[in-house]
Specification:
By secondary structure, this protein is α/β, with parallel strands linked by helices. It contains 19 helices and 28 strands. The radius of gyration is 27 Å and the shape is globular.
Length: about 725
């Protein structure tokens, strides 16, 4: 790796000699780099201990989804004999091998982190105890609990000629038990005992507050009760991850809702893609599990410690504010606080909302006010993910009951939210809301709400556009931007978009909105080429993009062309980034940083200097092929000069200046954490926005390569 990095850094890019794959990082390995940055937060001793545990659980949950979706897709390609190469030149088989190799040291660090956190939690009175640490009285209490609450719901399933290997559902925790007949010790059997999800994984000890024992350890300690007359030879936990990516043949579906329900049931039975196993399980049993699950050795992940650590996130709900981040109290703009009529506020001018630093309450109030206002005739809204107790849903139901025309596009194909969205769809339909499930062959990911109101001078359309979901819960922890406007062109575009989503018509042309898959890709490419054309010594070009991911080849090629023309490019990419920055002759004018912190960076912001006529857009779409070609996405311009300047200087400027949480992407694909120069103050973008809001004097940085901060160490 050191030699490769030296070559990347020292020798200029030559398109005639370097293969095209040299220009890009592998998408899956780049994602693993992102998740390693999540793990770094868990390893950070400066963070409160329960927040470190939360990051540890997020790492594990992210990895589960990665295997269920990304690894499962590669395995399907491999099984089908496909040799299609990724952008970096790897075949599916090569990618699977690289994923397995790259993950193992990370998983060792993950386990070491739990080993470190456990005594720290214990010192604060939160104990996760091994069964062997309990005294006789506590073991008696748990034996009684086992007999009373656990034993009745357990079902041991033995494997023998009359009992085939049982189906093991996705992400379930199981005990693999090897038993022998006391009358004939040579007669051994393997049995599977599922750890029931209907019971808490962390069993509280009645005599000690905030003290827990793992349910699987309670079952293991009493496992003999399930096999009377048998000798227990071994008992160890294991966990299976299955393919959970739903594939829907929409063109053949008469009823999309029923089809999604059927696919959800099948998700539990997808092909196995990963085996996590207690490292102490006898090797023959591990080999047997691999064989029956049709997995290879590289799919086996032995664990020295508890499996399924994401379940430990329940500990972060313990009421110990001293062990968590200080509480954020979202602010409400003074003009929104003093004026109850939100429509009147929006008529005066566009309103910028910045969550979680600014309250999500105006968004809820916007829909609630529309539901109650007798002058409102119609409400149309897209819903992708929303909360369990959703005031947005309640307001839409009330609006329908009040006789207003209410139409909701509720995306049933929102991954891992399909079931809750089905329930919301039924609830809305019961009160007469017009519910549309999606657009054929496309996933609707845009975030938009339209309110049509009768006023003195005729009908006026009020629009809310956002980078994030209509979810009050995630709005507390996701950074997102929203805009409330009644500008006529925005209202007309919103009407046209909803007519496309709910009716049968072709898209566009739109006046202001950039909409995928209609015209978003073409417009991004056009804007990049315009930036190149405008660039010159007296009029330097500058592109800034803040997004979750960047993987689309066409757009990355456009950025490479802009870099080679001398345009300065700053990319703030939280997660996967396949673009290789800092390579002479290819991308020396491109700088990529990633911020992983207390809040999930979810906002998408796009800035182009555009020859001095600055363009600034917000939207729901990342620079990924799926967002540009297979989803309905909206990107919208910010035209109010004060709002534009606020986003440019007080938001983007702060992120670009971060030298505390930011990691700088290197030409070899690794990330280096930045630290302040001797003459620089500490700049933690999320902390500044949380404490100062937009009242900061940090603006855009000096031109590259000065940048902010220096690589730590």
């Amino acid at each position: 790796m050191a030699e490769q990095q030296h070559a990347v850094l020292q020798f200029p890019y030559d398109a005639r000699r370097q293969p095209k794959s040299f220009s890009y990082f592998n998408r899956e390995l780049s994602w693993i780099e992102f998740n390693s940055r999540v793990l770094e937060e868990a390893l950070d001793p400066s963070l409160p201990v329960l927040e470190r545990l939360r990051f540890l659980c997020i790492f594990a949950r992210n990895l589960d989804e990665f295997f269920m979706v990304r690894v499962s897709g590669l395995k399907q390609q491999y099984a089908a004999g496909l040799k299609t190469r990724a952008a970096d030149g790897r075949t599916p088989a090569e990618q699977l091998a690289a994923i397995s190799a790259k993950l193992r040291p990370l998983l060792d660090r993950h386990q070491a982190c739990w080993t470190e956190l456990r005594p720290r939690l214990s010192a604060e009175g939160i104990r996760v105890l091994d069964y062997g640490e309990l005294n006789a009285g506590q073991k008696k209490e748990l034996a009684d609990y086992f007999a009373r609450e656990v034993f009745p719901v357990l079902t041991p399933l033995v494997v023998d000629p009359g009992h085939p290997f049982p189906h093991i559902s996705n992400l379930s925790l199981n005990l693999g038990v090897e038993v022998a007949d006391l009358n004939d010790p040579r007669e051994t059997r393997f049995a599977r005992v599922k750890v029931p999800v209907v019971l808490p994984r962390l069993v509280p000890l009645p005599t000690r507050s905030y003290s827990f024992v793992l349910l699987e350890e309670v079952i293991s300690a009493n496992i003999a009760r399930l096999f009377p007359g048998m000798e227990i030879l071994s008992c160890h936990p294991f966990r299976i991850t299955r393919d959970a990516d739903i594939e829907i043949e929409e063109e053949e579906a008469e009823d999309l809702l029923k089809l999604v329900q059927e696919e959800l049931r099948r998700r539990r039975f997808g092909l196995a893609v990963r085996l996590q196993v207690d490292a102490r399980m006898p090797w023959p049993l591990q080999q047997m599990l691999l064989k029956v699950l049709r997995l290879e050795e590289q799919d086996r992940y032995p664990v020295y410690g508890p499996l399924g650590i994401s379940d430990f996130e329940t500990l972060t709900q313990i009421d110990r504010p001293d062990l968590k981040f200080k509480t954020l109290k979202p602010v409400l703009s003074p003009h929104l606080e003093t004026e109850q009529d939100l429509f009147r506020v929006v008529r005066r001018g566009d309103v910028l909302l910045h969550h979680p630093f600014g309250s999500f309450e105006p968004v809820v109030r916007f829909i609630e006010r529309a539901a109650e206002d007798p002058d409102v005739l119609a409400i149309k809204q897209t819903l992708y993910r929303t909360s369990g107790e959703s005031p947005i849903i309640d307001a839409l139901i009330k609006a329908s009951e009040n006789g207003k025309q209410v139409a909701v596009l509720l995306e049933l194909k929102a991954r891992f939210d399909e079931e809750s969205n089905i329930q919301w769809a039924r609830k809305l339909e019961r009160v007469g809301v017009h519910v549309v499930y999606g657009v054929l062959r496309l996933k609707t990911h845009c975030k938009i709400a339209l309110v049509v109101r009768r006023e003195r001078d005729g009908l006026r359309r009020y629009v809310h556009l956002s980078t994030g979901n209509y979810n009050p819960i995630t709005a507390r922890v996701y950074t997102d931007l929203g805009l409330l406007t009644c500008a006529p062109d925005f209202g007309a575009d919103a009407s046209d978009l909803f007519n496309f989503l709910t009716g049968f018509c072709r898209q566009g042309p739109y006046r202001k909105l950039l909409v995928a898959p209609h015209n978003l890709r073409q417009n991004w490419l056009r804007l990049i080429e315009e930036e190149i054309a405008f660039h010159g010594p007296d009029n330097p070009g500058h592109i800034v993009i803040k997004a979750n991911a960047m993987t689309d080849i066409d757009l990355m090629e456009g950025l490479y062309r802009a870099s080679q023309a001398g345009v300065r490019i700053d990319l703030l990419i939280r997660g996967t980034c396949c673009l290789r920055p800092g390579v002479p002759g290819l991308s020396e004018n491109i700088r990529v940083t990633s911020v992983v912190g207390r809040f999930l960076e979810h906002s998408r912001i796009f800035y182009l200097r555009h020859g001095g006529d600055e363009k600034l857009y917000l939207g729901s779409a990342d620079w990924m092929s799926r967002n540009l070609d297979r989803r309905v996405e909206t990107v919208f311009p910010v035209e109010d000069p004060i709002i534009k300047q606020t986003i440019r200087d007080k938001i983007l400027g702060v992120y670009l200046a971060d030298n505390v949480r930011a990691r700088l992407l290197q030409p070899d694909g690794t990330y280096v954490r930045l630290s302040p120069r001797p003459d620089e103050p500490l700049i933690d973008c999320q902390e500044i926005l949380m404490t100062k809001g937009h009242n900061t004097d940090i603006g855009f940085l000096d031109p590259l390569p000065a940048g902010a901060g220096v690589p730590a160490g």
